[in-house]
Known about the structure:
Layout: H1 2-17, E1 21-27, H2 34-47, E2 52-57, H3 64-67, H4 76-81, H5 86-89, E3 91-94, E4 97-100, H6 107-110, H7 114-127, E5 133-140, H8 144-151, E6 155-160, H9 164-180, E7 186-193, H10 196-213, E8 219-225, H11 229-236, H12 240-243, H13 248-261, H14 271-280
Parallel strand pairs: 1-5, 1-6, 2-4, 2-5, 6-7, 7-8
Antiparallel strand pairs: 3-4
Helix pairs in contact: 2-13, 9-10
Amino acid sequence: MADQADKLRKMVDEKKKTKYRAIALTSGKGGVGKTNIVVNVAYLLSTIGKKVMVFDADLGLANVDILMGIKTKYSLLDVIKNGKKMSDIIVKVNDNFSIIPAGSGVEEIANITEPIFTKIKDELAYVIKDVDILLIDTGAGISKKVTFFLKNTEEIVVIATPEPTSIADAYAMIKIMSTNYNKENIKIFVNMAKNELEAQSIANNLNNICKKFLKKEFKIIGYALNDKKLPVSVKRQKLIAQTNPNSVFSVSMKKMINNLFKENIKVNENPIARFFASIFGG
């Protein structure tokens, strides 16, 4: 009886290990700050005990490792061409946070084929057993290398900025995912807004367009205002959530996490900093 009970417990434990949330963060247009959002959200989740893995799926133009100042020995190219396992290329940021680098400036990855996508998917299945959250940082646009990851992910966060082209491209992305791939679990996040009013207006307008033409409405999970401290962190290759946890951008990421993951990360918001951010951009 004891042996049977042990086996049953092991089976339950194994099932628990396979339960994780996979969320793809994407955009119709490049330059919306997607990767900054991904890595800072991942870091903040790791500080509350979540096992988080970031998969850099911006194939050919990957820069998660560069943004964080991490030197990588291997990348996804080594899995595709050189016989490496996915576990061989994983880089640990801390005990709870790891990344899978994709490599940049490599044509073989940028022009990847469907069989290779399948190989990546199969390899990925082996390394996410102990992960709570998998964040997929996709490329921008609607190419096959982007839509492959999106159509194979349950949750999608579409990021838009105040630029009219970004809003139009965000709608195009939502339309394709919703219409062509029947994706319902799509969420909207606005980045680089001048102030709260602008952010809410953009998110609501985007949702109104979706309601009018797609007959669907999507959840808005937050926004981030312009923060002058963020470019400084990027140049230093440091995460702003780590070096300046109470900055305007860091606070926005914490609020996003509380909305998206139903966590309760403490937010120490500085109303004065928020006020000046809304006027001068941080």
